[in-house]
Design goal:
Layout lengths: L1 E4 L3 H14 L44 H13 L1 H20 L6 E12 L2 H11 L12 H5 L5 E15 L4 H67 L5 H16 L1 H18 L9 H4 L19 H4 L1 H22 L4 E12 L11 E12 L5 H67 L5 H35 L12
Antiparallel strand pairs: 1-5, 2-3, 3-4, 4-5
Helix pairs in contact: 2-6, 3-6, 6-7, 6-8, 6-11, 6-13, 7-13, 11-12, 12-13
């Protein structure tokens, strides 16, 4: 239940000043502060770089120096559907702000109407009964009084008017609504940047995965070619009686084992090509021909200073998005709280009306009304306070989500640093392993051809070499992917505008 008071114009204009003097005129909700303790440095701080300049985050993909990767990212930024959807959400938030904030400004409307009506004759008889003395009536004739009042007659009614109203923002309800919507717009903009960061990372990871699978496929094909030669040699030696059937069978088995590894790698290549096509906004079957051609795995050294953990709050768009959402939730607490206080609305009406169209131009047809309306909830069964509790709970949710995003961001950076550093060490040992296994294959082959060893030693050496080379290719893929993950965890790429250079 609301109580509406109508007061004199002088008192109406004095009410805003009165409320400013009695109260603070605005409700000021307090925004909570995230209770996350940021470390002073990363626990897996990389080795000091030769350059003290910060890492290149805006366009980190340029550090890979791969024009094909750069071209894919350019197409992804301009054509990806997720980016378009996020952009449309920004437009939606901006339009919603205009719709919701319209009450901040005076509302002016016009109304023109024409009505033709016929009054009921029953109403004529009832009115006559009220106006005449029934004891003097001797027949059922209609009352001349009812006829004079217009009952039972057709009439026209014309009306033209202007209506105006303006809500005075006494306690900041509209101002807090504006702040909430502005925070929503900022959150939508940060969401688009978050989508952009994720898109760039996914394009780069899939491109690296593609090149890694192609390199593993090339290694397998090289071993197949070499093993076919070995099969021919063992068959010739077996037919010449220089070796046993076991050696020929071992050579055939090793060749079949290597060939069996090719179809899964071909599947990975095709699936990755399809994924890249979709990421850049194209059908899966229309991937660029340059991608199907074999190229080395792109590599990039992490040169430069990655900054402090505290800088992550400014660089990661998902953290900034969560902060904007917390601001919006806090502002909506203010909106809900202002419902406890009165609302003052100034209204006015100016128009002309008459029973004939010519009456609209007459001074006698002029009508007007003006005055303030003050409404204040007296009893609402706890609805307003329950609504405030709802907004308080949503603010608590936004705070928890904000803190969780911060913790997740710190975790992702730490994990990327660990993975990058350890993969570097693994890559060094795998390089040494490949060199040692290559030498072992040469020695085993020479001893087999000299009759000092059977083919089993050659097969074991070749199998071990293939495994080491394949592991090295996977390590190179993982190392490049860890660089992408680190750049992404640091918030790289969010400030890209237009096509990257």
């Amino acid at each position: 239940m609301h109580r509406t008071l109508t007061v004199s114009p002088l008192l109406a204009w004095a009410l805003p000043l009165l409320f400013c003097l009695v109260a603070s005129c605005t409700v000021t909700p307090k925004q909570p502060v995230a209770s996350v303790t940021l470390p002073e440095a990363w626990s897996e701080q990389p080795e000091p770089a030769t350059s003290v300049q910060p890492v290149e985050l805006a366009r980190w993909w340029n550090t890979f120096q791969d024009p094909r990767l750069r071209a894919l990212i350019e197409r992804g930024i301009s054509q990806n559907r997720d980016i378009r959807e996020a952009t449309a959400r920004i437009q939606e938030a901006r339009a919603s702000r205009l719709v919701t904030l319209a009450p901040r400004w005076p509302r002016l409307g016009s109304a023109t109407s024409y009505t033709r009506s016929l009054s009921s004759r029953t109403t004529t008889s009832l009115s006559s009964n009220f106006l005449d003395d029934e004891s003097t009536r001797t027949d059922n004739s209609e009352s001349p009084v009812g006829t004079s009042l217009g009952f039972g007659q057709e009439r026209n009614f014309y009306q033209i008017g202007l209506d105006a109203s303006w809500e005075i923002d006494l306690f900041g309800r509209l101002r807090w609504a504006e702040q909430a919507l502005s925070a929503d717009i900022s959150a939508a903009e940060e969401h688009r940047r978050t989508v952009l960061v994720a898109l760039l990372a996914e394009i780069a990871r899939n491109y690296i995965t593609l090149r890694g699978a192609q390199q593993r496929l090339r290694i397998a094909e090289q071993h197949i070619e070499a093993q076919q030669d070995s099969v021919e040699v063992t068959q010739s030696r077996y037919q010449a009686g220089l070796t046993s059937a076991l050696d020929a069978a071992e050579a055939e088995a090793l060749l079949a084992n290597i060939r069996a590894q090719v179809p899964p790698l071909q599947t990975t290549v095709k699936r990755t090509l399809h994924r890249l096509s979709v990421l850049v906004g194209e059908p899966p079957s229309t991937f660029p021909s340059s991608l199907s051609q074999d190229h080395p795995i792109p590599q990039a050294d992490l040169a430069g200073d990655i900054g402090l953990p505290s800088e992550l709050l400014r660089r990661r768009p998902d953290i900034r998005q969560a902060e904007r959402e917390l601001e919006a939730a806090t502002a909506r607490v203010g909106v809900a709280t202002t419902d406890l206080f009165p609302r003052l609305t100034l209204t006015g009406r100016l128009g002309t009306q008459g029973l004939d169209v010519t009456d609209l131009a007459k001074r006698a047809g002029l009508s007007w009304a003006t005055g303030p309306a003050l409404s204040w909830p007296v009893f609402d069964a706890g609805r307003i306070r329950a609504a405030i509790k709802v907004q308080d709970a949503r603010q608590a949710q936004a705070l928890a989500r904000y803190e969780q995003v911060i913790l997740t961001g710190l975790e992702e950076v730490e994990n990327a640093l660990v993975a990058y550093g350890k993969e570097q060490v693994r890559q060094q040992w795998l390089t040494a392993s490949v060199a040692a296994h290559t030498e072992a294959v040469e020695i085993a082959t020479d001893r087999y051809l000299s009759g000092l060893e059977n083919y089993l030693s050659v097969a074991l050496a070749r199998r071990a070499l293939h495994t080491a080379q394949d592991a090295s290719a996977q390590s190179q893929t993982a190392l490049a992917s860890h660089v992408v993950a680190l750049y992404t965890a640091l918030g790289g790429g969010w400030d890209t505008t237009g096509s990257p250079s």
